Amino acid sequence: MENQEDKLKKENHGNGSDKKSFQLVFWLLAAKIGFILILAGLAVWLIYSVHSAGDRNQAAVRFGKVLGSGFTETGDRLWIASESGIVSYRGGSWKKEMAAQIPAGTQIVPVKNGYLQFEGNGTAEEKNDNGKLIRSISLSKKWIGGIWGADASAHAFYHVSTDGGNLMLNYSVDGGKNWSTSTLKAVKGNVLMLAVYPEKANVFAIATTKGLFVTQDGGAHFQGYLNDQAVSSVSFGSGPNLSLLAGTYGSDTALYTILPAHQKTINLEMGTVEGDRLVQISQSLKHAGEAAVLTESGDVYLTRNSGENWIILAQNGRGLSGAK
């Protein structure tokens, strides 16, 4: 016969085992519930992330084949004109300014008030950087085709074309009322772009498949740079000291600073664009050293210190929000 003390010990031992079993089941159940809640939270986060990314992609500003670009006169915005319309960048944000398509073959030349739009039918329009018409300009239909350029005030116009194997320059210094013509014997290669110095209308540069040709006397004389290299884009900087940015293409793409007063050419070593042709270079009239470079694939790079550092603003024709 068990005594009363032994019975109490057995009962207490059994109760302790039951209590431990209950605690084990409780914590296992709690862990399972916690695990399920964590999985549910991860699922919600994943769905939200995908949805947010989709919204960002849908809201992303995109642009097509680039036709021209420039900075506003105040220097606070960069605008890009493409076949799909006009977009702008300011302070880390992109905006669609004009959705109307611009016809292929249209030439866009930046000026202080916006840009000049040269159509293939012998007409031109001056518009603000939002695409609104400022004025229409009548041009001779014999100048259809060729390459156009203009000074910052949209008062001096230059047109380069080939006539019977000769490279011809047609120009007006009174807003298109009167025109003169001359032959450019010193310029070699096929013309790809024309840029005019914003400070002085008779200073301009012609980019060709055989180099860059700069004149400071309205085309009477030219100084050659980047000889025998194909120069796809060129732009003048502002200020009294004459300087240019020029992009070459071929086996590798390169970006150069040209300093005519010193007969100096400086390779900016912009390795990020190697193999991608530079189609536009825009320099701010307001902030010295600020420039944007646009590539054929739709990438946009910005520098604020004359090419020492670059930030990417767009890739493959898609604006990157937050880039500053």
TrEMBL record:
Entries under SUPFAM superfamilies matching the protein: Oligoxyloglucan reducing end-specific cellobiohydrolase
Residues passing through the membrane, by range: 24-48
Lineage top rank: taxon: Bacteria
Keywords: Membrane, Transmembrane, Transmembrane helix
Protein name per UniProt: Group-specific protein
